[in-house]
Every structure is written in C-alpha cells, then in structure tokens.
Amino acid sequence: SFTENIFLKKEVLPDLITGKLLSGTGLSNPLKSFAHLEKLHLKAEEVAGGYLISGSLPAVSNIGPHQAFAFVADQGKEEKIMGFVYCDTLGITLRERVGFIGVNGSATYSVTFDEVFIPEEQMISREVDNFIKKIRGYFLAYQIPLAFGLITASIEMMEKLEQKHQQNNINRFLPIQSDQLRKKYNQLRLQLSKAISQDALDWNELTNLRLKSGYVTLEAVQSAMLHHGGGAYVKPSVTER
Q1: Measured between alpha carbons, how far is 228 from 164 in angstroms, rounded to an integer?
Q2: Pick from 234, 238, 237, 241: which is nearest to 102 by CA?
Q3: How far apart are CA 38 and CA 133, in angstroms?
Q4: For the chain, N or C: smaller number of CB within 10 Å?
Q5: 211 alpha carbon, distance to own chain's centre
Q6: pLDDT-wise least confident of 1-10, 18-27, 176-185
Q7: What is the DSSP string of 174-233?
Q8: Which is nearest to 40 in space by CA: 85, 62, 73, 15?
C-alpha cells in the first residue's frame, strides 16, 4: 500500500487482501543486502516498457505456481528497482526446496530469472532505498507472530501433559514450566501490540523484540521436548516436528 503505482493499488492489492491471489515477499536477500550482509542477487536492465530481470534467489517462501511475489533488483550505479512478478511469467523457473527440519510446509522455492520482462505497471518503487526504510519495520513485525505460534503450541502441549499426569507429574521438577513461558509470551505480545500501534514503527525496538521472541521460542520448544519425554524424539511426533 506504500507504493505510488495506481495500477497495483487498484488491480492487484484487492486480490491480495481477499486471498484471491496468494503472494510472498521475496525480500530476504534485499533486506540482507541493505544490512551489508549480502549482495543483491538480481540484476535489472531497462528496456522499452519495463525491465528485464536476471539472476537467482536461493529461497523464497510462501509462493508457488499461479502465485506472485515482490523482488528488488540492482540496475547498476547504485540504482535499484522493486517490482511485482507472477510465478508463471515467461523466463521464471521455480524449484521446490524440501528437506528442511520442520518447515517443509513453508512453500519455499529457489527462483531463477532468465531475462524476465517486468512491465512498468508492475513496478513498486524506483526509489528503493527510501521505500525499504518505510516497509522494513512492517516486514519484521509480520515475522514475529511466527515465533508466537511456536511458543503457544509448546505451552499448550506442556499444559496437556500437566493435565494428563496430575497424579504423578514428575515434570514439575523441570526448571521451565508452562506458566513461566506463558508469562513471557504475554509480555512479548503486549510489547508487539504497543510497537505496531505507533504512527512510525521503531526499527530498533522491533529488531530487539524479534530477537527476544526467537530466544523464548527456543526455550519453549526445548522445554516442550523435555516435558514430553522419550516420545518427543520419535518420528513423526509433534515435538520432533
């Protein structure tokens, strides 16, 4: 919605909001490049009516055939463009990435661009440096609830075990209990609610919150495995996943 492209706002955004068109972000590599951790993997060449995009993205999640995603490409001379591409566009090759630990449901693909033509009407921004600064906080804020889902699933599993073994609950001797994790989860959720209610999202606040959420997630899933006992290490148990 931050783009000034009227076509995308009127013709594409409504389908994204309703779910008629499914789409991923494709911004992992660009955000890492802006943090000077990677170089942009995509190159752009301006041609009549749009751009030709070439290069490969090793992993784009939440996409698939007949879907779409956003991308950032280097045009040279420190100029970058951000565009919107459909996965079925001529010159796009998708290769499904599988074999992950626990995230095979993330619909992750490697994507190769072979001189893919992106028309002007699919350009999100030509002032990418400033545009990224506007959207990166929201990008990060959308990731944090992924941690919340894992934390709550772990807590619920621990609580079920507590109810099941009320008479002989040896798990009560373990150092981390479900009520401790729920307290931490509630604090994180409150912090996120406050952070996203501001007119301007604070990047430093969100990065710290994302980091804390990651550590609490590790604590939660490891504790859930200990509470579940030997069954946690059996494939394909819920805790193993």
Answers
A1: 11
A2: 241
A3: 17
A4: N
A5: 14
A6: 1-10
A7: SS--HHHHHHHHHHHHHHHHHHHTSSS--HHHHHHHHHHHHHHHHHHHHHHHHHHGGGGG
A8: 73
Q: Which of 145-149, 182-186, 223-227, 228-232 has the lowest mean pLDDT?
A: 228-232
The reported pTM is 0.82
Interacting residues of 154 by C-beta distance below 8 A, sequence separation 6+: 181, 220, 221, 223, 224
Return the H-helix or E-strand segment holding 62: none
Please give the average per-residue pLDDT across 2-9, as a whole number: 90
Q: How do beta strands 68-76 and 79-86 pair?
A: antiparallel
Q: What is the pLDDT of residues 32-41, one digit of tens each?
A: 998 899 999 9
CB count within 10 Å of CB 80 equals 23
121 residue type, one letter: E
215: tokens are: 């550590």
At residue 196, the pLDDT reads 93
**Contact between 41 and 162 (Cβ < 8 Å):** no
Whose tokens are 């389908």? That residue is 15
